[in-house]
Structures are given as structure tokens and as C-alpha cells.
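comment on this one:
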Amino acid sequence: MDTPVLLTLAATLLSAYFLWFLLLARTLSGPKAWPLLGSVPSMIVNRNQVHDFLAANLRNTLGTYQTCILPFPLVARKEGFFTVTSNPRNIEHVLKTRFDNYPKGPHWQAAFHDLLGHGIFNSDGDTWLMQRKTAALEFTTRTLRQAMARWVNRTIKNRLWCILDKAVKGKLSVDLQDLLLRLTFDNICGLTFGKDPQTLSPDLPENTFTVAFDSATEITLQRLLYPGILWKFQKLLSIGKERKMQQSLKIVETYMNEAISAREKSPSDDLLSRFMKKRDATGKPLSAAVLRQIALNFVLAGRDTSSVALSWFFWLVMNHPAVEQKIIDELTAVLASTRGGDRRKWTEEALDFDEAEKLVYLKAALTETLRLYPSVPQDFKHAVADDVLPDGTAVPAGSTVTYSIYAVARMKSVWGEDCMEFKPERFLSVQGNRFEPPKDGYKFLAFNGGPRTCLGKDLAYLQMKSVAAAVLLRYRLLPVPGHRVQQKMSLTLFMKHGLRVFLEPRQLEPQAATSA
């Protein structure tokens, strides 16, 4: 074939592609899509502010838009097509009404498989259902809540207070996010497989598992945001981020295998030991690989989410002194009624379960924090069959639906003109004496919704209340001048540079104790 013919054929194919792309682009309503590149350039430019980028686009498109990352015939309306929404009705439709049509799907499972395998957060169908039923039986028991309270209170009294007292005496700043991550990691390890790694110790030892785990979760998120062919190519050649991913996974696997081996030799009453008693579909005990994946999923849920939420909570409270005072007033009133008027007794022991239950305003403040800064800011679902969302958006089979929990809180159409304000009263009764979640449960999705609603919700509130009370009753937090609080792009909404604060002893006002 001579050169003129080749040039003519190439020009014809190129013209046909651009005509096809123009027709595709007319159906897209999100960030600008480019020929051959789709919306990937926009994602790269905004990679350090993905959640705010999505929220801005959703506000401009009234809550739902569609975009494409693989603008090529045959795949553009499937693997490369994304429907992004913050509309509560659409989210309810995906998470509840048409639950069976929106599993995690192959795109999500492929990205997460190396880290989470077939654990509860990365499985569908019977595999998910077995783990869900087993976990549900355990998470609804008062015994587990009491065990969590013991682990939390022990860690607060014997470690957290000691570290913070030392910082006060030395007039040193601390990275509160780092301390909270260590605290929740020690607690969830104790609860999951009876092992206390003691990462929250005075010398703050580096834990190779947590470093590797953080790296693996961050790289996993990047897998989701870009075309799969990119990370799969890097993985095949063991280059770039994927090389670091493989190194991190080896450390994680070794740590988890040691924990499982220890439990096999000495079973206990922790979650891992209970799963060891279960059988798979063939009647055989669960393999070490499956147990490792199950335990790792619980560590992910129990460590990151609560610590991240508490970090944003303390940051918001520091910047809203009126809210802080209301929390202190409630704490002192409850403790005056349960421990008497001697203020020294209020800070000798962390909260017990019954005291934590009485803290209505504190729960509202924590919930408002989770509304504005949800620990898991977005999630992804795979459309099995063609569907139409309640707002009329057509979802093609094989495509991905992403719902932005972070963006929901920033929609005036959902939360009103004051949606960006930190306002715990949103979650209180008119009288202010009772916690009241919104009647529309899909406005607030920090604990997900539908059949996959978080099983550890009550445990999370118990731990967050206990830690928040333990810190605020004893110390006043002050921001370190010049310290920048910025979101880190990971599966959970970490602060990129941590939360550095100074602490000073809190002087409780006598009248606060007698007001109960």
C-alpha cells in the first residue's frame, strides 16, 4: 500500500474518531474531556484536591455529572464511563433500592485485591454475605462493646495521658493525628486478634506495618482514579508506585501471618479467633490467606476511620470556641452526676460505657465533623445492567457510579445555605437534649447506607467519645503557628501534614460542676 493511500486512510480514521468523540462529548457534563485522554488531565491537575474538585463539579451540575476516562469506541460507555453523584435520592437508589445491580464490581475489586483480597470491604455476593453475617453477630453483642471500652480506657490512661502530660511540661508540640492513629491501631489490633503492638508508647516507635499499610492504601486509591491499564502496566514491570506497592504488601502480609500464627497456637475471644471457628462453603476451615484478608479489613475500618474523624474534630473544635465550651459544659455536667463534685475524679479514669451514652452534644459534634469531613469521602459501584437514576440520569451497564459523601455535605440543596458551617445543632432535637439523625438517612453517609451500613458504628462512637472527652477535659488545644492543615489523597481523609498542636492544662470552672 503506497503512502498516499495510507495517509488517506489515516485521515479518514482520524476524522471518524473525532466525529465520534464530538458526539460522545455532548453526552458528558463533568470536567472537560479531551480526545484520546478523556478527563484524565483534569484528574491529574487536581490530584491533590480531588474531593473539592468533585464537589465543585457537582455543585455546577446540580448534583450529578458523567465523565469518561477512556474515550475510545467500545469501551467509552463501559469501563471508561463514570457517573458521579451527590444526590441523596440517587445514592439511596444505588445503595438500597437497586443494591443487587451495584456491587463493588471488577474495577474496584481489581484495584483493591492485592491489599484486601476477598475481605468484607472488597467482596460481593455469598463471600460478602458470609463475612457480614458473622461480623454482625459479633458487633451487636454488649460483650464486644465492653471489650472496646476496656481497650480504649487502658490506652488512654496508661499511654495517651502520659504522652500529653510530658508535652505540656516540656512545652512541646505534638502531632495529634499521629497519636490518634497509634491509639486506634493498638485498640483495633487488641480487639481483632488480641495483640497489643504498643505503638502509642512514650518513645513513639516506628511501626513498619502501619507505614507499609498507609503506603498501600494511598497507592490503591490512585489505582481507582486512573485507567486500569496504567497501574497494571507498572505492576507487570514492577516500576513506579507499583514497585513500592509490592514492597509494602510484603511487610503487611508478614505482620498479619504472624498474628494469625499466634492465634492458631493460642485461641482467645478476639474477632480473629471467632472467625477461625467458621467454615467455608465446602465445610473446611478458612485458610490463612482468607483469615489474613478478613483481619486486615477490620484493621482498615477500625484504625483509620476513627482516628481521622477525631483529628478533624479537634481541628474544628480549636477553631470554634463556642462549640468547645458547650462540649466542656456537657462533660462536666455528666461527670458531676456520675462521679460527684470532686473535679480530680473526673480526669482520673476515662469514660465508662454508660457515661459515654449520656453525651448527646458531643455525639452531635462528632457527627457534624463526619458530615463535613467523612473518613471515607467517596465510594465506587459497578453497574451490572442498564439503569436510570431517580434524577433521570441513564447509567449504562459496565460503567462505574461514584458517590461523593464529601460533596453531599457541601450541597446547599441538601443541607441549606449554611451547609459549610460547623453546626452540631443540626443533629439535635429542638430542645437540644436528644440526638436526632436526619430523617433522610442518605443525607448523612459517613457510615454508609443500605445493606452495607457500617457494623462498627456504635463502637466508633464509643471510642471517639472516650478519646474526645479524655483530651478536652484535661487540655486546651492550641494550633502551632504556621502549621498547614491539608487533606491527603488517600482512601481515608488524612491530614497530609498531620495535626500539630500545643497543649495547656485546662482549668475547669467550678460552676460547670454544679450546673448539673
About this structure: The longest strand covers residues 500-505. Residues 43 and 50 are 7 Å apart (CA to CA). The chain has a mean pLDDT of 88. The chain has 20 helices and nine strands.
